[in-house]
Design a protein that fits this description.
Elements (H helix, E strand, L loop, with lengths): L4 H5 L5 H20 L3 E2 L5 H11 L5 E6 L9 E6 L9 E8 L6 H9 L8 E6 L4 E6 H10 L2 E2 L2 E8 L11 E8 L4 H9 L3 H9 L3 E3 L2 E2 L12 E4 L3 E11 L5 E8 L1
Antiparallel strand pairs: 1-3, 2-3, 4-6, 4-8, 5-6, 7-8, 9-14, 10-11, 10-12, 12-13, 13-14
Helix pairs in contact: 2-3, 6-7
């Protein structure tokens, strides 16, 4: 069976994601034609949403999303025939211990990427007080075990652990109460990061902003409660709640900046 890829990606506007979704279709072909079980690399929530918009159109296959924890942000998708059992998740946990004081998510990610490993091979990084768990594809776990010796110039120890040993991490955040003139994306960014409207618009139009992991270049994008906004160079925040209107008909909001 040869799948018409253009038919299944015609609804996707982001060119980079079209390339990624064509790879998903390649895996579907292998499952249907050769009865293989195929596994993607780690995908963010937006990428998985696009993938499922394609996968759900093939009734002869089934798929699973796995990332170590049910609430994992980054997860792989396992694609197989409907009758397939005993599926290998193909992910594992690498636990880092040692002198980890003042080390952040960025430090651990950077140390692994400096080994020449692609970001797509790495799932969530869970930074605890005394250790950090990194979820990775099994095909690179041994390489990391033997080559990762330091994080931010600090000597570390690394072991492989079962997925069952994972514990979730409560995110740290700074909470802001802001009154907005509207729920436009540029208005939100200006208020959250104390920028001018023009600065916010320039950041958005430059392609530096994602809403719920989807690239957005329209300043007039309307936000909703629960939306996650990521800005290159500024980090990530959440429009946590909308509290109603002020006496001047402005929108009262609660915003959480992740730290």
């Amino acid at each position: 069976m040869k799948i018409n890829k253009e038919k299944y990606v015609s609804h996707i506007k982001d060119y980079n994601k079209i390339i990624d979704m064509r790879r998903i279709i390649d895996k579907i072909e292998l499952v249907l034609n050769n009865h293989y079980t195929e596994t993607t690399d780690f995908l963010d929530p937006y990428e998985r949403l696009l993938a499922k918009s394609i996968l759900n159109r093939f009734p002869d296959i089934k798929y699973f999303e796995k990332g170590g924890n049910p609430e994992s942000e980054r997860q792989i998708i396992i694609i197989c025939n409907n009758y397939t059992d005993n599926i290998d998740l193909n992910i594992t946990v690498l636990r880092i211990t040692g002198d980890l004081e003042n080390l952040s998510h960025k430090d651990f990610l950077g140390a692994i990427l400096n080994l020449g490993i692609k970001r797509s091979k790495i799932g969530d990084i869970l930074v605890h007080k005394d250790y950090t768990d990194i979820i990775v594809k099994k095909d690179i776990s041994d390489f990391i075990l033997f080559n990762l010796e330091k994080v931010a110039n600090k000597k570390i120890f690394i072991t492989e652990e079962p997925l069952e040993s994972l514990s979730p991490v409560e995110p740290s955040y700074k909470e802001l109460n802001k009154t907005l003139s509207s729920l436009r994306l540029d208005v939100y960014i200006s208020a959250t990061y104390n920028l001018s409207r023009q600065e916010s618009m320039n950041i958005i139009k430059s392609g530096y902003v994602k809403v719920n992991w989807e690239p957005v270049d329209k300043p007039a994008k309307e936000l909703e409660a629960g939306d996650t906004i990521s800005i290159k160079g500024y980090g990530r925040s959440i429009l946590y709640s909308i509290e109603g209107l002020s006496k001047k008909d402005k929108i009262r909001t609660s915003i959480r900046i992740l730290i």
